[in-house]
Amino acid sequence: DGSAAAPIAQVAADGAPGGALNLSDADQKRLQDAIDHHLRTDGGLPPGEESTREMLSEFAVCMIVAKKGMKEIEEELAPFLGEHAGAFADWFELHLQDHFPDLMGQLRRFWSG
């Protein structure tokens, strides 16, 4: 019918308390690509885990759009990243601060209640 499916992060945002974060489709893609690169190079996934990296990249973006805290993101990713989940959450928070400061501001306001 020519209609496109909603971006996965938008689906997550629909259930987020207080509404969706301001993150464009292009920024979602940019963030997913950065996560994928990090997981490929430093993230604790063995080489050849492309489908897992893609899924985790989408999952991490969905959790941010749904306003999950870093501790919750770490806990959700621990089954996949094991001992690397904490380091990933630390990197993710710094990456958001450096590359998505407006988004990080929205998240901090939400997290502080």
Automatic annotation (TrEMBL):
<protein>
    <submittedName>
        <fullName>Uncharacterized protein</fullName>
    </submittedName>
</protein>
